[in-house]
Design brief:
- The structure is a homodimer.
- By secondary structure, the first copy, chain A, is α/β, with parallel strands linked by helices.
- Chain A folds into 2 domains: about 5-115 and about 285-299, Nucleotidyltransferase, domain 5 (2-Layer Sandwich), CATH 3.30.420; about 125-280, 2-Layer Sandwich (Nucleotidyltransferase, domain 5), CATH 3.30.420.
- Chain A contains 9 helices and 13 strands.
- The first copy, chain A, has helices at about 40-55, 90-100, 110-120, 175-180, 180-190, 205-210, 215-235, 255-265, 285-299, and strands spanning about 5-10, 15-20, 25-30, 65-70, 70-75, 80, 85-90, 105-110, 130-135, 140-145, 145-150, 240-245, 275-280.
- In chain A, strands 3-2-1-4-8 form a 5-stranded mixed β-sheet. A 5-stranded mixed β-sheet of chain A has the order 11-10-9-12-13.
- The interface of A and B includes residues 160 and 172 of A.
Chain lengths: ~300, ~300
């Protein structure tokens, strides 16, 4: 059995761990990201955490992979810019590689999580899978023949020409309609709130369950747009599995059952409907996927 | 040098030829498709034409590839249904393979043409290319690492949710807005015609050149939708080259120059703009690409 280091860089914590070649986590460690400190100092913390993970697992890892948010250059292993963490032109993969004495790859965090789901989660064994994350934005991670297809940003696919403004500058993006942010905005605009006046991604689903007709209609429209975006991806790429993650995916079959029905009607004649399922690994997807990206490097 | 048979099945003619491993056509032959005859009879004509091509080139081909319209099963080498030709459950690739004594692959005709452009045309040497054909429909052929990505139908990607009806049953597809058919319909609806009252894909461009302001506006809108679809593909897949073929592409820079400008504004932050160019091989793309698909089989 071979072992790999996974490193998942988040806004609050950086998780490290040892993952075996089957995608099982053997040991884990975590350090606060401490975004207020210089990137070189954070680097030392990550190295210490990786060494702790290695020591707990008591194995010699063959390679390491990191998943990072922000704009990155995977070929050079550089985080070009991460505003949340205050990182700039941070050659983190080469630095980690020197410290650990093994090859280290750097991937986008959503891409790493998608690979995790394909190795050990909802899309296990799929030759091609699209992992769609319904969170602050709409993330898309595409894994083809066991490898990350880098830089897949289908969240910024326009589905409503001239529609709602998106953070990217375009109008009518999939993300503008299907992110949790988009759903929360629509919920709020329609006067549906929690008892304390707040709105979150569950609010509209709970209201519908309590018989609110407007909420039902909003959910139907939300799923309509989601189906439109997914059918576009199926017509273009025919992934074997579409895995849905992020906050909204917690609704489970309340979301997936009507979604599958709507997608079915929009898929191009003769095409097989992919399995549309919820992601299963949660936060572990990023850690496992990062390690498995490291495995690709060592292979 | 190795040689391959290319077979391009069209509605009017079936072209056959010998193509070398660099994608150069060595010999060509053609037979009328004769759609009114049984498929077994047409098969004998194709075999005779291939033998004529082989004889002219005086080489021993290592494999053959066929490009066919209609719904096909590439894995089994079967044309499931081709309404125009009256073909049904036609195991054409196995039959050809038996007759020629070499492996034969069957691909979608648009996919084969896309591979032709990547081997020897506008996208020569590109690691990834999307070939978009603006004809009766909007065809999309995606070639990744020198191989056809089968069954890519981005023409049926909705870009205007709830928009114009498409032949596929969805509303607002890329194809409904950007096919030659779509452009001709819009031209006609706006009362712009040729002197004899007819309308074709050039009509609106010629009218604009003659100072027709409505025609200018229609072209601008057409390019706007085309840019929207292409930007979606770039944000999702970042192809190195986008090759534009089909009747409308004959407009050349009258189309491409404003298209590049519009696409640039819609591409996701930090992404490199692919080369957007016209296809260069014309009808030869299908023949060359089919042969090169055969090469993939023999490799």
């Amino acid at each position: 059995m071979k072992y790999y280091v996974g490193i998942d860089i988040g806004g609050t914590n950086i998780k490290t761990g040892i993952v075996d070649e089957l995608g099982q986590i053997i040991s884990e460690d975590s350090v606060p990201t401490g975004a207020d400190r210089p990137q070189e100092v954070v680097l030392q913390d990550i190295i210490a955490s990786v060494k702790a993970s290695i020591s707990k697992a008591n194995v010699s890892p063959a390679a390491a992979g990191m998943g990072s948010p922000g704009s990155i250059d995977s070929n050079k292993g550089i985080v070009i810019r991460n505003y949340n963490l205050g990182w700039k032109d941070f050659a983190i993969a080469p630095a980690m590689s020197e410290a650990l004495g093994i090859p280290v790859t750097l991937e986008n965090d959503a891409d790493a999580a998608a690979l995790g789901e394909v190795v050990a989660g909802c899309a296990k064994g799929a030759k091609s899978a699209m992992i769609i994350t319904l969170g602050t934005g709409v993330g898309s991670g595409y894994v083809l023949n066991g490898k990350i297809f880098r830089g897949c940003e289908f969240g910024h696919m326009v589905i409503v020409h001239g529609g709602l403004e998106c953070t990217c500058g375009r109008k009518g993006c999939f993300e503008a309609y299907c992110s949790a942010t988009g759903l929360i905005r629509t919920t709020s605009e329609n006067g549906i709130t929690e008892d304390d006046g707040s709105v979150n991604g569950r609010t509209v689903f709970d209201a519908a369950e309590n018989g609110n007709k407007v909420a039902e209609k909003l959910i139907d429209e939300y799923i309509e747009y989601l189906a439109c975006g997914l059918a576009n991806l199926i017509n273009g790429l025919q992934p074997e599995v579409i895995g849905i993650g992020g906050g909204i995916a917690k609704q489970g079959e309340r979301l997936f059952a009507p979604l599958r029905e709507k997608v079915k009607r929009e898929v191009f004649g003769g095409f097989t409907l992919p399995r549309i399922v919820g992601c299963t690994l949660g936060y572990k997807a990023g850690l496992i996927g990062a390690a498995m990206a490291g495995r690709s490097l060592a292979d």
